[in-house]
Amino acid sequence: MQENENISHEHDDDEQHEHAHDDNDTPQHTHEHDDDGQHEHEHHHEESFIRKYIFSLDHKMIGKQFLIYGLIMLFVGGGLALLFRWQLAYPGRPLPIIGASQQYIDEGEIVTSNDKRWDKIFESEKEELMETHFPNGVIEDKTYNMLFTMHATIMVFFVVVPILVGAFGNFLIPLMIGTRDMAFPILNMLSFWLAVLAAIVMAAGFFVPGGHAGAGWTGYAPLSVDPQWTDVGWGQNLWAISLLIQGFSSLVGSINYITTVINMRAPGMTFFRLPLVIWSLFIVAILLLLAFPVLSSALALLIFDRLAGTTFFTTTPEGGGDPLLWQHLFWFFGHPEVYILILPGMGIASELIAVNSRKPIFGYRSMVYAMIAIAFLGWIVWGHHMFQSGMRPGMGSFFMTTTMLIAVPSAIKTFNWLGTMFRGSIRFTTPMLHGIAFVSMFVIGGLSGIYMANTPVDIYIHDTYYIVAHIHYVVFGGSLFAMFGGIVFWYPKMYGKYMNDTLNKIHFWITFIAFNCTFFPMHILGVGGHMRRIANPQFYDFLQGFEGMNIFITMSAFTLGFAQLILVFNFFWSMKRGKVAEKNPWNVTTLEWEAPTPVPHGNFAQIPTVYRGPYEYSVPGEESDWLPQAQPEHAPASAGD
Amino acid sequence: MLRWLPPNISEYAQGIDTLFELIYWITVVAFVLVMGTLIVFLIKYRHREGHRAEYIEGSTKLEIIWTAATTVIVFGLAMLSFPQWNNLKSAPDNPDYVVQVRGEQFNWYMIYPGPDNEIGTEDDLELENELHVPEDKLVQIILTSKDVIHSFFIPNLRLKQDALPNRFLDNIKFQAREPGTYEIPCAELCGFGHTTMVGFLHVHTQEEYDDWVKEQWPE
Q: Where in chain A are the domains?
């Protein structure tokens, strides 16, 4: 029974909530791991601990599993970033705490060289993991490659997609369209457990001889193909196999989402009454369904090249392969993937802004059409990653035009978010702060994209920190702020508790400031010509002036990383100790807030009927400033009973 | 922002900096307008007791205006960029000098054709990480790679092109205006020695260059 999880009633008596009575089939039950208690719900059936928390078929539990999975991976990916940020600020200096070595203490300097690496290539000595990757506590150049490769791989495939699509998609789609569960609960469970398997395979790569993949998250061939170029053996294979598994997970999940949205909407829930977050997840599911198989086939070919001696991505006179084929396949997947990362963020931000401005979304339909346009254009812009790749320059002009076109729907969305706030009544709740941060950061990320879309300017800033700044403004400033906002916003519905708002506000402000201090200076590094993926900027004369800036960025990055501990502490602490949540604390119109809190198995006592669009706030002539989707015409507005 | 650009010594790439500056001002103006509006809205329309939000569903007129405005700006930018791009990425007709550059983990090998002006003959000269050119002369680079993908990047020339194994790209050219020594990093991850892969462009005056040639090919 879902309704009882994580509810601790130690505090229950302190908290009186006016709406507690209409969904209080829970209070008998006190312990989250207690599955012997009596349940008094109409969908009553007993579930063992394993069925309930581990191999759960319930979309809400699977959503929460994805959320916690993503948060764990967020710390893995972030930790890797902090390691290589140290190297960029203090090249060649031993890592703090884990790296203080006797040699450094004795001699004050460290001897590392690639010469040793050359000698080691064809030897298979077994060495200590630490000694291999961090000789004398210093990040070796090869380890550095592994660190940024895995940082990006984990963040893209194991954090943002699992949280935005896996967690929010699973939790929100059935609740917001008004149905009891996903169309295929078993596939849904399979999707999560495949993702776990992929994570285990990916994690295993750190422990094999030769270390993990070090060819960048883009895995450009032929670097990724032949171990002789990288000195990486099974790490790269496991990287490819893990992503292949993750691809199946996404595929299974997306089929489920698409089927559910098309077939299982509540009576009256037409497509143009869907909340924008559901639209975004629906579009993203279609993108995943079509894009991931392209990556999967590329990965399969890569594995053949590595293990079976084929030559799809290498150039040998007799082989007939081509390294550029990998880039075309990868980016044909990769660019839709970028929109997979940002579209759910746009959807979530739309919810946060409309609810907290107490206004309908400005131009709801054009918001939907803009997302469809972005999704469509996403298929014909992949070449803008390849302007300098040796692709025929004439193609560059085509891809520049299509890429520039994406500015149009992006601008429509931005102006509509502003329009939604216009003449609103803006409540500065924590989710709203995250929503505003999303819009502002997305504006910077969008505008900086114009530089790279412009082919002549791209010649210079391609593969510099400019692109690093751009991607982080879109994916961290965009997707992750939406994710934080979404977690705070839906937490009461997920866990039946409130998060501590003071901690949330502290987390927001530190994150917002540290984020900008970390990533904004990277634009300047990029303008200075600072290449990405180099382990030691001090090696270059023309980058000498950037040492201070690199140190500043590293300091900010550490602040940013440690600030996330506040969120995670709050997240788990509030499950136990948070104030018990009301059914609809933010006064939201959409259907998920019609369900009791915490949401029982089967979601709704009775499937709601939908009478209107999702953003009926401040409707003239109504007493309350919100008109729930499920409320019949001319009935008095109230919180739900 | 623009003062962080390294000195531009390229005859051809002046247009890149001009476009950069143009886009810079477009984006700064757009950013200030959007953020200014946002901040005004946040202050003006903050929640106050007794005030109610206005029910506005949208405005087709405004949607058309900002869609059209954005389209015009981005297409204008694209139009300005086409000729630049085609010019920058086309092979030169009559280069004064031709040098073949080969990326190979983790060095740039420069192959000079010698007096017979043909690469692949006896009198070729291969130097490691040294590219010698005279100032103000049109130099064509034939770019290739032996192993993995490298990227030939000369920040001061605003020049970048990936080097592909077994392909010989001929559409790289420059005309350097300032004598001096400039770095040629590799801009595409090429393995564990990527960081230390750097060559040097030596731009000589014509006399110096002639002396250098005499040194290398003493008749």
A: 60-92+139-577
Can you tell me which residue has the tokens 């909530």? A17
CATH superfamily of B97-216: Cupredoxins -  blue copper proteins (2.60.40.420)
pLDDT at A495: 94
The reply to whether residue A625 touches residue B46, judged by beta carbons under 8 angstroms, is: no
Architecture (CATH level 2) of domain A60-92+139-577? Up-down Bundle (1.20)
B57 touching A (Cβ < 8 Å): yes
Give the number of other Cβ atoms within 10 Å of residue A34's Cβ: 11
Question: B164 and A323 in contact by Cβ < 8 A?
Answer: yes
Pairwise CA distance, residues A254 & A188, whole Å: 9
Q: How far apart are CA A290 and CA A294, in angstroms?
A: 8
* Confidence category of residue A18, pLDDT binned at 50, 70, 90: very low
CB contact (8 A) between residue A323 and residue B165: yes
Instruction: Judge whether B56 is closer than 8 Å to chain A, CB to CB.
Output: yes
Quick one: tokens of A640? Answer: 């739900």
Closest CA to B187 of A612, A148, A526, A309: A526
Measured CA to CA, the distance from residue A286 to residue A189 in angstroms comes to 19
- Mean pLDDT to the nearest integer, A123-137: 67
ipTM computed for the complex? 0.95
Instruction: Calculate what percentage of chain A has a pLDDT beyond 70.
Output: 86
Put simply, the chain B residues between 7 and 26 with a CB less than 8 A from any chain A CB are: 13, 15-16, 19-20, 23, 26
Judged against a pLDDT cut of 80, whether residue A280 lies above it is answered with yes
Q: Which residues pair with B165 in a beta bridge?
A: B145
Among B189, B197, B200, the strongest candidate for a mutation testing the A interface, having the largest count of A CBs within 10 A, is: B189
Question: What is the average per-residue pLDDT within A627-634?
Answer: 88
The closest CB to that of A315, out of B53, B166, B198, belongs to B166
CB A363 within 8 A of CB A422: no
Domain B2-88, CATH among 1.10.10.10, 3.90.350.10, 1.10.287.90, 2.40.10.120: 1.10.287.90
A522 touches chain B (CB under 8 A): no
Closest CA to A579 of A500, A485, A470: A500
**In Å, how far is A388's CA from the nearest CA of chain B?**
5
Contact yes or no for B192 and A117 at CB 8 A: yes
Residue B207, chain A, CB below 8 Å: the answer is no
CA distance A365 to chain B (A): 9
Domain ranges within chain B, ordered by starting residue:
2-88, 97-216
**Given a cut of 70, is residue A95 above it in pLDDT?**
yes
